[in-house]
Amino acid sequence: MSYRFLGYQRENGQVGIRNHVAVISAMDNCNAIVNKIATQVHHCLPITVWYGRTGFHDQTESPHLDALVGLSCNPNIHSVLVVSLEEESAKMLCKKVTENTGKTATYIAVQNEGNSILAVAKGTEAAAQLVSEATEQSPSEFDLSHLTVGVECGGSDTTSGLSSNPALGRISDLVIKHGGKVILSETSEILGAEQVLAERAVSNEVKEKLLSIVKKVDEESKSLGINLSEINPSPDNKAGGLTTLEEKSLGAIIKGGTSPLVEVLDYAETPTKSGFYVMDTPSPACESITALSAGGAQIILFATGKGNIIGAPVSPTIKVTGNPNTAVTLGPNIDYDVSDVFLGKKTFDEIEEPFMDFIMKVASGKKTKSEILGEEEVVIKPSPLSI
Description:
- By secondary structure, the protein is α/β, with parallel strands linked by helices.
- The chain has helices spanning 31-40, 63-73, 87-101, 110-113, 116-134, 158-177, 194-198, 204-223, 228-231, 235-239, 245-253, 285-294, 324-329, 339-342, 348-363, 369-373, and strands at 4-9, 15-16, 20-25, 44-47, 77-84, 105-109, 140-143, 148-154, 181-184, 261-265, 275-279, 299-304, 317-321, 336-337.
- The protein contains 16 helices and 14 strands.
- The strands form 3 sheets. It has a 7-stranded parallel β-sheet, with helices on both faces.
- Strand 3, helix 1 and strand 4 form a beta-alpha-beta unit.
- The protein starts with a strand and ends in a 14-residue tail after the last helix.
């Protein structure tokens, strides 16, 4: 079956499923200005961040800058207004966005404007012009080869590994079969199942990189006196019936389906060809989905058992549950219910097509629950140097 969605063609050939004008903080001391501009200008997307004041110290290794560039370059973003305290960091970010994508990226620097009131005024005028330009573009129809899907889970329980995560895995294989890309994140959630996932690697180089990132997070945790096998599964996972780290991880990795692992991505790195990828990210949901957006995922499928409400503002986040109780109690936050699989009423084959049809609706403009309720967050991994 052919699946198609409505999207927006970008100058670099990528396709967005949203047409956002992003007003983005280069550093946290400008968050209030970003929010004030977004309040004044309808239809622009405020992206606020924590930290960043020393996040531009080293252009060769700055997770903060990499993530800001990635978020700005995401195909769902039409154009960007950067807000910074001073000019150099803003110019640096705009330059990288323009060079990578060709999209419009402009900035305001509070120190240049004289004060925050004048900065808000100038930013409001600039954002309004960008929104006006964005609304001139009409969507066109595209196939799955233009789609990059991030897969995530949170609040996992026994239903996750038996229903919602495998349901995401079926979609992952389908997207890849049609030429698209799928990114699995959360490195520590692979621990205990890394050898299983490594066997899907297309080369020894990819296999070794996967094993190395898992080993690194394990060793870093132990250096801090933390044994991941003792704290994972988390208390809510255990309350949901999960008993061991291996049980949780085996259920987590199936979100990526069964396709070969073509590459292991660094934090916020963008995949370049069709296939299945693993991205090296922190495990908490906000950090992980931010990294997926920064890596170019236009849409995120987020499986949850016990319940997790958060979404990514740049990438519409579809909340999926296989827990029949969560489907009711967390109903206002759940986008798609696959609990009939867990209850034995339907098979994965029976839900695959209607689930994919729903995803295509979201890709074509249907709002997710987290978009509608405004329950979205950006959290960037801190830079290695903070002074």
